[in-house]
Amino acid sequence: MKYFPKIMAVAISASVPLLSFAGQWQGPLNGIISDVIRSGYNTYAVSADTLAQQTTQLCAAPTKANQASTETAFQNNVLDWQQVQWLNFGPVTYFMRYYAFEYWPDKKGVTQRQLRALAQQDSSVMEAPKFWTSASIAVRGLTAIESLLYHPDFTPMKTKNHCHLLEKVTAHQFSSASDVAKQWQDSRAQDWIFAEEGAEFDAEQAALEQVLQQWIEHMSAVKDAKLETPIGYNGHENLKLAEFYRSHLSLPSIQANLMSYRKIYHAGQPSLYDIAQQQHPKLANQLEQALINNQKLALQLPDDYFQSSYSKAQRIEMATPLVKSISASQTYLAQLVTQLGFQIGFNSRDGD
């Protein structure tokens, strides 16, 4: 997802303030890493493996049943990805993995052009040991897989080269997802925070600050890029800019994102919610209610919201309560983390 910042590790300067006492943020940080990130990547890697195996079966026996099973495996894999998509920090930043997992928005059709070129090449090219780690990010992940399964230019049921390419992309995606999952098992969030020489800082606070920054920025991307932009909320409507629109996963993806937010808020003992309840109870409850409303309002949108022939005005009318609710949750979250002592900077996901 190209809206997200390119962060491999965060350098902390001497100007970063110390916490009032050490270990204050151990509970929420450890909970988010364990219950949201590690668990989420493990689940994503498992469904990526299932997709790769199902693709192999499809290529070996291109039947309607195997095609349907492959599409179901893809849909499950996409929704598992949505649970961890909010975080572009840590192992996923190596080798441009984050952007390779999902190259979106692809306004110029780069994925289709590069996939067509690959399909026309000798298939032995893709067997080179380092081919996929050096290949374009546009052809290495879920965006490419969706194109190969749903774009009319590709017919994996009939064309061996197309199915072979699909097999290779799904295998690479599984390998990458598995690597990230393992690296999270073997590391801590603090390992991805580096202090400048002479700086003193609390590594737990600095790591949690980055996690919270990512959460706030992703919330903005969901509202702006996933919802407002394709329906023309503030401009021209272009439903093809919706995320995973070919596979009709645009709305389920948003719903999965909003579900992940409450997991972040309540992860750990104590959780961020628990600490906020103690220090800023009114704001803590306002954020909690906004996160619940986000989920309810997203579930109230019709399943065919991005597909059927609703008018632009109808779509905007239906989406307005959700847009306002996400905006409110952004405001509450930013206010809360600021009052808890975190320094949240500008939104580096703005733009394309």
Describe the structure.
This protein has 352 residues and is an all-alpha fold. It is built from twelve helices and two strands. The protein has helices at 26-60, 64-82, 97-101, 110-120, 131-134, 142-150, 160-185, 203-231, 250-266, 272-279, 281-300, 312-339, and strands at residues 10-12, 193-195. It has a two-stranded parallel ribbon. The chain is globular and about 60 Å long. It starts with 9 loop residues before the first strand and ends in a 13-residue tail after the last helix. The model is unreliable at 4-20 (pLDDT under 50).
CATH topology of the largest domain: A middle domain of Talin 1
| Helicity level | 55-70%
Number of domains: 2
CATH superfamily of the largest domain: M75 peptidase, HXXE motif
How much β-strand is present in the residues?
Answer: under 5%
User: In terms of quaternary structure, what is this?
Assistant: single chain
Tally the beta strands: 2
The average pLDDT is 92
> Helix count?
12
Briefly, what CATH class of the largest domain? Mainly Alpha
Query: What gross morphology would you assign?
Result: globular
N-to-C SSE string, H for helix and E for strand: EHHHHHHHEHHHHH
Unreliable sequence segments:
4-20
Write the CATH architecture name of the largest domain. Answer: Up-down Bundle
Strand order of the largest sheet: 1-2
**Termini distance?**
10 Å
The largest pleated sheet is described as: 2 strands, parallel
Structural class: mainly alpha
Radius of gyration: 21 Å
